[in-house]
Amino acid sequence: MIVYNKSLLDNTLFVDEASSLKESGFIDPAQYQTIIGELSTLKRHKNILIRLGFFLLGKFLYSSICGMLSIFSINFENFNDEILLFVYSIIGFVGIEFLAKQKFYGFGLDDAFLLGAQLLLFLGVGITTKGNFLAVFITIAAASIISYLRYIYLSSALLFSLGLTGSLAYLMFEFGDIGKSILPFVLMLFSGLLYFSAKIALKNIKLPYYSKGIELVNSFSLILFYLSGNYLVVRELSVLLLKKEIPATQEISFALFFYAFTIIVPAFYLVYSLIKKDKIMLWIGFLGLAFSIFTILYYHHILLPEEALTISGLALFVFTYFSIKKIKNNETGLTFLPDRFSNSNSQLNLETIVIASQFGLQPEINQEESPIKFGGGGFSGGGSTGEY
After folding, report:
1. Residue 104, beta-bridge partner list
2. Which domain of life does this protein belong to (predicted)?
C-alpha cells in the first residue's frame, strides 16, 4: 500500500532518530555525519520555510497544468465543467505518484499536489451532489484514509478525523430535531470509541510509519470529547441547529450535566496525564481548563475580572506546585528534570545574564602571560635581582 521504498523509508526514520540523539548530546556530530553518509534516504526538507517555498512552487506548477487544460476544454462544446474538477484531482494524484517514485517525501512539491488533489476532489463531489455535505464528508474520510495509508502525510490523518466526525454529525441531522438534540451525546460516545481504538492500534501496530498519525487521531478524540460536552459549544450549537433563540436567563436541557462536564473533564485530563505521563493530554487539559473558565465567566459574571484572574492564578500555582512535587524525580515520561531532547543553552545563558545584572557581577578577565621572560640579571633595572 505504501508508495515509498520501505528500505528508504526505514533509513529516513533512522536518520530522524539519529538527528534527535545528536541534538540531545547522545552522539557527536562526527557519528551523525557517518550515519547520514552511509544511508540513502528520501528527498525532503525539514526546514519549514524551504518546504513552504517549494509548496508555493508546486501550487504554481499544478495550477499551470490545470489552467492549460481549461484553455483546451473551451474548444469543446457542451463540455461539463464539473468533470474538470475530477480531472484536475486525478492530475494531482498522478503528480504525487510521480514525485513519490522520484523519492520526494515532505519536500513541498508533493504536499502541493496531494492537498490540491484532495481539495479538488471534495469540491467536485460537493458541486456534483448539489451541496450534500454528508456525501462530501464521507468522501473526505474515505479519500484521506487511503491517502494516509499510501503517502503517510499527517494532514491526511487530520482530514480523516474531521471527515469521520462530519459524516457522523450530518448523519444525525437526517433524523431531524431529535438527532440534533442528542448529537452531543453521540459525539461523546464516538470520541470515546475513537480514543480507545487509537490506543489499541498503537499497541498492536506493526508498521512504525503510521504511529504519528494514530497519535494525532488520539489527540483529536480527546479534544472532540471535551468540546462535545462543553456548555458554551452545546448551547451555541443548539441555537444554530435548532434555529430557536434561548433567552439569557434560561438554561438549556441538562444544563447541570454540561456545566459539570465542562469543569470535570479538563481536571480529569490533567490528573490522568500526570498519572500516565502523557504530555499531549496534559497540554489539552490546560487548554481545556482555560476554555472552561472562559465558558463559566461568559454566562455568569460571578467575579470581577481582577478577582477571576487572581483566583485562577492561585489555582494554577497550587496545581503546578503539587505537579512539580510529583514528577520532579521521574526519570522517564513527564518529569521536571531538564529535557535532553531540547536545547536549553539559550535558557542557561539567559539565567547567567540575569544573575549578573542583578548582582553586578563582572566576567573574570584572564590576562595573557607576556611572551618576554625576565630573568635575574647582575645589574639594576627591569628583571635584575639588584645584585652586582
Report:
1. 43
2. Bacteria
> What band does 358 get if pLDDT is binned at 50, 70 and 90?
very low
All 3 cell numbers of residue 47? Answer: 526546514
Give the Cα-Cα-Cα angle 219, 222, 228 (nearest 5 degrees): 140
The predicted pLDDT at position 348 comes to 42
What is the pLDDT of the chain when averaged over all its residues?
A: 81
- 8 A C-beta contact, residue 82 and residue 73: no
pLDDT at 388: 46
Say whether pTM exceeds 0.85: no
Beta bridge partners of 292: none
What is the SS3 assignment for the chain?
Answer: CCCCCHHHHHHHHHHHHHHHHHHCCCCCHHHHHHHHHHCCCCECCCCHHHHHHHHHHHHHHHHHHHHHHHHHHCCCCCCCHHHHHHHHHHHHHHHHHHHHHCCECCCCHHHHHHHHHHHHHHHHHHHHCCCCHHHHHHHHHHHHHHHHHHHCCHHHHHHHHHHHHHHHHHHHHCCHHHHHHCHHHHHHHHHHHHHHHHHHHHHHCCCHHHHHHHHHHHHHHHHHHHHHHCHHHHHHHHHHHHCCCCCCCCCCCCHHHHHHHHHHHHHHHHHHHHHHCCHHHHHHHHHHHHHHHHHHHHHCCCCCHHHHHHHHHHHHHHHHHHHHHHHCCCCCCCCCCCCCCCCCHHHHHHHHHHHHHHHCCCCCCCCCCCCCCCCCCCCCCCCCCCCC
Question: Maximum CA pair distance of the chain?
Answer: 120
**What was the pLDDT predicted at 23?**
76
Return phi, psi of residue 104, to 5°: -90, 130
CB 343 within 8 A of CB 22: no
How sure is the predictor about 227, in pLDDT bands with cuts at 50, 70 and 90?
Answer: very high
Cα–Cα distance for residue pair 113/38, rounded to 1 Å: 31
- Report, as an integer, the average pLDDT of 284-288: 91
Closest CA to 158 of 114, 123, 200: 114
